[in-house]
Amino acid sequence: MRIVMLSISHRTASVDLRERIAIAGERLDQAIQSLRHKYPHCEAVVLSTCNRTELYIARPLHEAPTYEQLDEFLADFCGIESKHVTSAAVHREQDQAVTHLFRVATGLESMVIGEPQILGQVKQAYEISQRSSAVGPVLHRVFQQAISVAKQVRSESGIGEGRVSIGSVAVDFASQIFERFDDKVMVAIGAGEMAKVTLKHLQALKPAKLWLTNRTRQRAEELAATMNLQGAVGSTGSGGGGVRSFEDLDELLVEADIVLTSTGATQPIITEERFRPLIRRRRSRPIFMVDIAVPRDIDPAVGNLSNVYLYNIDDLQRVVLKTHENRSAQVEQCEKMVFEAVRTCMATVQHRDVGLLIRALRDKLHSYAKDERQRSIKKRSNGSGEIDTELEKLLEEHDHRLVNKILHLPLQQLDPKNPDAPLGFFAAALKRLFALEEGTAAANEKETGDDAAK
Amino acid sequence: MTDTLTTISLIALTLLSLAAWFVALSRARRVARGEPVTTFASLQTFLVGLCIALGAGLFIYRTLAVHKRWQPLEAHVDGLILIGALLAMTVTYLVKRGRMKGLSLFALPFLAVTFAWAICASLWTFRPFGEINSVWKMIHLSSVYGGMLFFIMAAIAGGMYLYVQKTLHTRHDPSATRPFASLEAIETLIVRTSALGFALLSLGLVTGLIIVTGGETRLGTGWWHSPKVLLAGAAWLVYAVVMNVKHTTHFRGARAAWLSIAGLILLLATFGIATALPALPKDEPPRPIFRSAPRPSGSGSEESRGNPLPYGRGSSSRSLASPRPAGTGLREIAFQRIDSVSSMLPEASCES
Question: What 8-state DSSP symbol labels residue A301?
């Protein structure tokens, strides 16, 4: 079986094209069914995320689909011109295709190196194909190995360590200050897009209350609506909290444990003079302040006060950059692990292919021997119909020994444990010389497997 | 024989604690580099587990085989072994239970110091407490050693708090300090251990007062303003504040951490004074700290237990102390003052 792959990703296609070829939800199942219908001897897995759409196919040698056919299939299915797909598609086969899959699963091909979501998406794609019975022994082995190696790489290297977004870094800092959040009050000052993104991360901590305040009240209410918070003054929404008047800022600062600021103010809105008197009212409770506004909303001198932990956008971005640096430093180690895993995986796949080939060859030779044996017995009986069972047994043993002796040397050469043997070449030659059909052997294997399952 | 075994075991415990600490350090470095630490974690758990087993075994062994009677706390060395084993257990529990893997980085050096101190208490400053013949004395010893354990834990947590806070103020990658737990969790640990230690210390002080004023050891009128009592009282006050930091305005955060460390230093100073100076009832004439007569070889170590020590608390040892004429010099007054105070503190502190 040949493993081939078509990939269109953030590296080769614009977001516009990626949107058009994205195959999500029920369409994924349709795409697999369509592929199977068109190429029934193939195994197929379709992986589609916001950053990539990829087709993984295992097909018998010299059979469809070719690269061009894959391009056409994807273009037809997504309703776009084939040239768009061809210009952005990357094709790989055999160990290169497997390497690509392993790199994708481990996050080495992701936009943010080492991001963990892709592994879940690979698993999901595999499971959907499995449900559609589109995964056979080859892709099953390859995807199982991909999931396994991705887990191994993540646990044995630091590729997944650290945070890669401002919001998640803020969450990390908050978790270093507070142990629990269900008794904490969070206050967001400002209602910009950045605030929304960061606030979503912080809201995941499930604080007891989340208050929003903004000079323009309407914008705070809009943000509250998107965050499932009720907009009325002082009211408690479904998430606990709501919108408060900007004039209540001092009260909010007394109440707050976590403060996020992102206003467009040109001068700091929280100064040392303003905050210092509040410390006593706060009973010196620790406060975590995240200032992602530029220019800054919180006077840096506030950060020097006791039990105040103040971080600005630069502090958070520095951590993000450090994470990227650390992950990049881990890439080489991960690639080595992937390389080893690909070698093992391909050896296993080839092992299976060679096994099937040997079985097909032996079956064919035995079939010839049987035919000749029947002919000889028929001649010996001279049309009397009496079968000499002793002679038949003798000939059968003779044929068996002969076939085994003939096969002995080729089988030695085809030993998958021999690393120097050009297995692919020998396999192809045998197939050609003896007119062996891979599909038949695979079908035989499947039948055997089904029988065993029964 | 028994002394040798104790000494060897204590040296082994000290080395094991240090080894566990080095493993914990290497583990922390690897965590910071994002490298796998499974082997290091297992090795550290194994070493600390060995400390617990060996420490507990040694304590039981000394009770049954060395003292040959059911009096577990025969001398200060027993108290230190008990504290060491319990400290290792507490740290293992906290590390396993909570998000406090980094606690071992701060606790293991304390463990090593405790066992090293036990070596000193066994070899050079050994003196048995004598017969524990009252319930008060037993409660006094147990509560003071128990309290000490919790105060050590509070100080360790205080050190960890200051480290995490410093790291947060430097605004470095927060993932590097993740194993050290959150400031809130550490502060809670400080408050809880201080509260437990405070309760036990209060019990120890009350029983100490009962002992010195009402029974076995009588002190003179000036015992209450001696350094030992003042230091113990100051430590008691410090912990009274620490256990209530969440209700105060001025002592939260780093100040609570510093106070927990200061409290331990005060207690150690109290122990130090009690260890350095002998305890005597006030009606006895003051005696020098160090004997003027040459000591027989091996005296002062556990090996000399067969011979009465020259300046012990028991009547037999007191009878051998070289009498010193009552004088009016500063040195004599100091001896009298400190002697009177030393009996306030746990029996362990009276060794010298």
Answer: G
Contacting residues of A for B172, CB less than 8 Å apart: 319
pLDDT (0 to 100) of residue B258:
94
**Contact yes or no for B195/B320 (Cβ under 8 A):** no
* β partners of residue A3: A58
Strand order in the sheet with A90-93: A43-48, A52-59, A2-9, A90-93
Q: What angle is formed at CA A418 by the lines to CA A449 and CA A359, rounded to 5 degrees?
A: 30
User: Is the CB of B29 inside 8 Å of chain A's CB atoms?
Assistant: no
Say if CB A239 and CB A215 are below 8 A apart. no
State the ipTM, two decimals: 0.72
3-state DSSP of B317-351: HHHHCCCCCCCCCHHHHHHHHHHHHHCCCCHHHHC
Distance of alpha carbon A142 from alpha carbon A104, whole angstroms = 13
Q: What pLDDT does residue B341 have?
A: 43
How remote is the C-alpha of A84 from its chain's centroid?
24
State whether residue B253 sits within 8 Å of chain A by CB: yes
The one-letter amino acid at A97: A
Q: Which residue from B minimizes the CA distance to A284?
A: B249
Residues B122, B199 contacting (CB under 8 angstroms):
no
Residues of A tagged active-site: 50
Q: Could you give the dihedral angle defined by the CA atoms of residues B208, B213, B219 and B225, in that order, rounded to the nearest 10 degrees?
A: 70
Pick the more confident residue, B218 or A220.
A220
CB atoms within 10 A of CB B290: 10
Q: Per residue in B198-215, pLDDT tens? A: 999 999 888 888 877 765
Our CA-based measurement puts residue B189 at a distance from the nearest CA of chain A, in whole angstroms, of 12
Confidence of residue B34 (pLDDT cuts 50, 70, 90): low
Q: Which residues of B touch A177 (CB under 8 A)?
A: 168, 182-184
The tens digit of pLDDT for each residue in B129-156 reads 766 667 787 888 889 889 999 999 999 9
The pTM score is 0.67
Q: Which residues of B touch A315 (CB under 8 A)?
A: 171
What's B132-180 look like in SS3?
A: CCCHHHHHHHHHHHHHHHHHHHHHHHHHHHHHHHHHHHHCCCHHHHHHH
- Residue of chain B whose alpha carbon sits nearest to that of A283: B249
For position B277, what pLDDT does the model report? 58
Answer for the pair B219, B253: CB distance below 8 angstroms, yes or no. Answer: no
Strands (E), A163-297: 185-189, 209-213, 241-243, 258-261, 287-291
Chain B CB contacts of A330 under 8 Å are: 34
Residues A150, A259: contact at Cβ < 8 Å? no
Query: Which among B101, B163, B183 is the top mutation candidate for probing chain A, defined by the most A β-carbons within 10 Å of its own β-carbon?
Result: B183
C-alpha B307: how far from its chain's center? 27
A378 touches chain B (CB under 8 A): no
Is the minimum CB–CB distance between A307 and chain B shorter than 8 Å?
A: yes
Torsional sign, CA B169, B170, B172, B178: negative
CB burial of A36-72 (b: ≥16 within 10 Å; e: otherwise) equals beebebbbbbbbbbebbbbbbbbbbeeeebeeeebbb
- Token readout for A91 is 């094709």
Distances (CA, A) of A299 to A198, A271, A279: 20, 5, 15
